[in-house]
């Protein structure tokens, strides 16, 4: 852990912020770094990166990467001792993405009657529904549901389990999620229980877990991870899908879209839809 909790903030033009974010993603030493990127001032064209290092080495690595982009102004601010996670979650509003309404315990009295209401508690896992990538996946899935139903769905990098749980709540009989983080698997299982679904979650790296293999082939695969793992797993995701099956990919910046898309086009996929939200991209692809 760092000696004291800090927040590293970088501000500058959008292109420079997105390039810096891509550099953070590409740095092996920062693979687990937590950061966000958003538009801070539309009129002035200012974008902002907020990073929350958990170790001194990670803080030094983030500052090193950001320093390589001189158009960005970078500062480090100390955070007072507090339960920042609990405070942040208590202030998060519910999210509406098509038919889906994602909310936390603190908003349990605000659920609309005409929505698929998903109660998602994040804990230490990624994916409350507020991030642009998760919203993009839910919006893409909502649109697909207008014409199709999916009997088997796989969620790679499930985080809180929100995507697999959304599938289970909309008619999917077999919904399986994986994550490389054991804490996330525990949280996703708790969320599945709270939402009274049969979605199942396993601790796994890649798609080699027995439960994942036994349920294949899938009609739909979610993969809301990072650009490099999306490319690395392209062949495995193709193998997990039935011919004509659909993949919803996210976790990539708009600047990484071409890189990820090329890996899937080379394997016979075609892009059927793209969703852009803030700096993030979501791709919907169909296997040939």
Description:
The structure is a single chain. The protein is α/β, with parallel strands linked by helices and 288 residues long. It folds into two domains: 6-78, Alpha-Beta Plaits (2-Layer Sandwich); 86-287, Vaccinia Virus protein VP39 (Rossmann fold). The chain has ten helices and 14 strands. The strands form three sheets. Strands 10-9-8-11-12-14-13 form a seven-stranded mixed beta sheet, sandwiched between helices. The protein has a four-stranded antiparallel beta sheet with strand order 2-3-1-4. Strands 5-6-7 form a three-stranded mixed beta sheet.
Set out the fold topology.
Elements: E1 6-13, H1 14-26, E2 35-41, E3 46-51, H2 56-67, E4 73-78, H3 84-90, E5 95-97, E6 100-103, E7 116-119, H4 132-145, E8 152-156, H5 162-169, E9 174-179, H6 182-194, E10 200-203, H7 210-215, E11 218-224, H8 227-232, H9 234-240, E12 241-253, H10 257-265, E13 269-277, E14 280-287
Parallel strand pairs: 6-7, 8-9, 8-11, 9-10, 11-12
Antiparallel strand pairs: 1-3, 1-4, 2-3, 5-6, 12-14, 13-14
Q: Which architecture of the largest domain would the CATH scheme give at its second level?
A: 3-Layer(aba) Sandwich
Strand order of the largest sheet: 10-9-8-11-12-14-13
Which CATH C-level class of the largest domain is it?
Answer: Alpha Beta
What is the string of helix and strand elements? EHEEHEHEEEHEHEHEHEHHEHEE
Shape: globular
Contiguous low-pLDDT stretches (5 residues minimum) are 87-91
Largest sheet, in brief, is:
7 strands, mixed
**Helix proportion:** 25-40%
Secondary-structure class: alpha/beta
Spell out the CATH superfamily of the largest domain: Vaccinia Virus protein VP39
What oligomeric state is this? single chain
CATH names the topology of the largest domain as Rossmann fold
Please give the domain count.
2
Radius of gyration: 19 Å
């Amino acid at each position: 852990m760092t000696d004291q909790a800090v927040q590293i903030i970088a501000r500058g033009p959008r292109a420079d912020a997105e390039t810096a974010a891509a550099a953070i993603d590409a740095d092996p030493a920062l693979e687990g770094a937590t950061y966000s990127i958003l538009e801070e001032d539309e009129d002035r064209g200012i974008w902002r990166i907020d990073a929350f290092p958990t170790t001194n080495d990670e803080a030094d690595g983030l500052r090193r990467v950001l320093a390589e982009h001189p158009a960005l102004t970078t500062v480090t601010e100390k955070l007072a001792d507090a339960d920042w996670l609990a405070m942040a979650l208590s202030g998060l509003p519910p999210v509406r993405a098509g038919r889906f309404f994602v909310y936390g315990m603190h908003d349990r009295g605000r659920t609309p009657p005409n929505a698929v209401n998903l109660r998602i508690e994040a804990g230490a896992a990624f994916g409350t529904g507020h991030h642009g990538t998760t919203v993009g996946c839910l919006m893409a899935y909502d649109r697909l549901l207008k014409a199709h139903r999916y009997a088997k769905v796989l969620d790679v990098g499930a985080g809180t389990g929100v995507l697999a749980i959304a599938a289970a709540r909309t008619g999917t009989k077999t919904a399986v999620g994986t994550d490389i983080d054991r804490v996330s698997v525990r949280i996703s299982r708790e969320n599945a229980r709270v939402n009274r679904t049969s979605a199942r979650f396993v601790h796994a790296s890649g798609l080699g877990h027995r439960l994942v293999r036994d349920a294949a082939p899938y009609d739909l695969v979610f993969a809301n991870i990072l650009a490099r793992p999306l490319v690395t797993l392209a062949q495995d995701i193709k193998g997990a899908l039935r011919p004509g099956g659909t993949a919803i990919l996210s976790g990539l910046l708009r600047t990484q879209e071409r890189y990820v898309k090329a890996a899937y086009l080379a394997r016979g996929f075609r892009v059927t839809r793209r969703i852009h939200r803030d700096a993030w991209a979501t791709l919907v692809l169909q296997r040939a």
